[in-house]
Amino acid sequence: MGDSSVNESGGRPRHEAFPAQLYRQAGRRWLILAGALAVLLCLGVFAGHVRNPDAVKQRWAVLVSRILAGAGGFVFVRLLLFSYEERVPVLFFDLGSAKGAVGMVERIGDAVRDLMDRGYEAVPLSDVVEFVREQRYVPKKGVGLVIEATGIEDLVEIVAALPGFDITVLLPLRAAEDNTAFSRVSGLPSEVSLGLSLVGRDGLEDAAGLKALLGRFRERISGLTGSEPGFARVGPSPGIDLRRLLKQTAYTSFLDGSGFNRFGDEPHTLRLLNATAAVSGDRDGKGLAMYAGLFKAKYYLWPAAAMMRLVGKGLKGT
Fold first, then answer.
1. Cβ 19 vs Cβ 283: under 8 Å
2. CA distance 47 to 60
3. Does residue 220 or residue 90 have the better pLDDT?
4. Using one digit for the tens of pLDDT, what is the confidence trace for 68-105?
5. In 10 A of CB 24, how many CB atoms?
6. What's the DSSP call for residue 285?
7. What is the Cα–Cα distance from 97 to 108, expressed in whole angstroms?
8. How many CB atoms lie within 10 A of CB 21?
9. What b/e sequence results for 188-199 when a residue is b if at least 16 CB atoms lie within 10 Å of its CB, and e otherwise?
């Protein structure tokens, strides 16, 4: 998948660097805006000046020039910092990469509730796919939530920490191999959907082998829970036609794709915004709303994001 491949410069998976890409993109727009406003300010200040000592400028001409300079500044601010492009952030938390962090699931729960208090609304990933494919309605401040668990133990914690939230929990393949594992989950809430994570697993270069793994997980989870998993994160799969594989396996979509989850993007892959670092270490998750906003092309948030970066509260990679 395009967004899970290795970065040319740093060698890290691109999804880890994506928050930094958003930050730099917004920063470049502010730099362009500063240059444009400086030029327009000069034009406004010198609008009343004349080239020749004996020349005279009409007052109305000076006024019109300054009005045009001000209008130009307004247009630049509107074009560079505000966008009505509809993007749906899908926040991703990887419990495996945060192994050892104390109370990680509780931190995620607190961060998500804080995000909802700021007006955001958790929506099922299936709704995000329908929006990308057919522009079906999703709330203006809708976000998808994906948590990659290390096993059934994490699933139990997630269900308890985030009651009532639409969440997709990605499980490793081995979780479906234990017949007794799901007995520890007393009734999976309807808001929680399950998916598969094969990232880091060997032998994913073969389409037939990958298809078999996806099918086996789907069959096992359907038998154990009564609901079919619709999403899978497979990581780099060079030479494999993921769109065709999706149709063959009856999954809804793969995760960790490219684009911005807009109408017209590729619906067979959804972009993930890795927010694991926002709740790791000494970070309290308050930056989630900031980066969800940057994902939605709210570039005017960049100064606040820069301040968070200075005090060490920004997402890693920024």
1. no
2. 11
3. 90
4. 989 999 999 988 888 778 999 999 999 987 665 678 89
5. 14
6. S
7. 14
8. 14
9. beeebbbbbbbb
Instruction: Determine the Cα–Cα distance for residues 281 and 42; give it in Å rounded to an integer.
Output: 46
- Using pLDDT thresholds of 50, 70 and 90, give the confidence band for residue 116: very high
> Identity (one letter) of the amino acid at 28?
R
Q: How many CB atoms lie within 10 A of CB 303?
A: 11
Alpha helices, H only, the chain: 14-45, 59-81, 104-117, 125-134, 152-161, 207-225, 242-249, 288-295, 302-310
Of 317, 303, 231, 313, nearest in space to 270 by CA: 231
The C-alpha angle 56, 58, 64, rounded to 5 degrees, equals 135
Whether 138 has a pLDDT exceeding 90, the answer reads yes
Neighbours of 127 (CB within 10 A): 17
Position 313 scores a pLDDT of 63
Q: What is the mean pLDDT of residues 50-56?
A: 68
Q: What is the pTM of this model?
A: 0.84
Cα angle: 198, vertex 199, 202; to 5 degrees: 75
289-294: long-range pairs with CB below 8 Å, 24+: 289/114, 289/115, 289/118, 289/120, 291/19, 291/22, 291/89, 291/315, 292/89, 292/91, 292/115, 292/120, 292/143, 294/19, 294/22, 294/23, 294/25, 294/26
Tell me if residue 47 falls in helix, strand or coil.
Answer: helix
Token pair listed for 48 = 């009343």
- The Cβ of residue 203 has, within 10 Å, a number of other Cβ atoms equal to 9
Largest CA distance in the chain: 95
Task: Give dist(CA 250, CA 271) in Å, integer.
Answer: 20
Q: Which of 161, 199, 215, 155 is nearest to 181 (CA)?
A: 155
Q: Which helix (H) or strand (E) holds 193?
A: strand 192-197
H helix intervals, 173-270: 207-225, 242-249
Alpha carbon 17 to chain centroid, angstroms: 11
* Residue (of 225, 265, 268) closest to 250 by Cα position: 268
Cβ contacts of 307 within 8 Å, gap of 6 or more: none
- Assess contact for 18 and 89: CB atoms under 8 A: no
Which tokens hold the place of 99?
């192994």
